[in-house]
Amino acid sequence: MPFLLATDPAKPDRPNEDFAAVGTNAAVLLDGAGTPPGTASGCVHGVAWYARTLGGLLLGALGSDDTLSGALAASIEHVNRLHADTCDLKHAETPSSTVVALRWDGTECEYLVLADSVLVLDRPGVSPEVITDDREAVVGAELRKPMDALPTGTPEHDQALRDYVAALAEHRNRSGGFWVANTDPTAAHEALTGRLHLDEVNALALLSDGATRLADRFGLATWRDTLDTLAADGPAALIAQVRTVEDSDPHGQRWPRGKTRDDATVIYGHADA
Fold this sequence. Notes:
CATH class: Alpha Beta
Distance between the termini: 7 Å
Shape: globular
CATH topology: Phosphatase 2c, domain 1
Largest sheet: 5 strands, antiparallel
Structural class: alpha+beta
């Protein structure tokens, strides 16, 4: 199954905190959790470093015989060792990331989804199957209301965003809260996992939440529309559509959100590509 990949940073003057890569038998997409301006993280390297370091290690680890969860747990521990001497790994805002991972052989594909990035499966004759871990959204629904009531980009919204991120951290990687790749390797075993036969899907897509906004935040496209855009025009075209809508609502008045724009990344594979 050939793949197409596109990624775009939220702002050209800030690092892209998403990471995506495709190997000979695996693909990974990570969406690093950025700290709002003015918020310390305890890590001298930053979120972009964390996402690409964990992502690169995970892609390599998926070449082993370990389970997907086991490969992710080992990769998290490896990253811990890389910066434990320079960074405060116990800091509440130490970098974290969502993870979507695929591994395949000649007939089957395994998947892992941790946190709110998305895997969409296009199965013949049925509606798209959307696999995402919505525990963070459930926890954050009440916590984000003060932020969503304020215009994006204002000092008041910026402070509310910092407050929201701090409150959300109290629920990260604990029972009853939500789970992300962070410093605790056991989070990997909280991921959604599964297996499918490759002949059961026409196409599949891995998307960071910055690329899913048309479908799950703005309500301007269905998942079927999303897959059709990817099939016809490719990942960059989908991201361009998202940017057009984001720029039409710069202050979040129609669609309240933490960031006017978000890093957006798509990996798309199609059986007939």
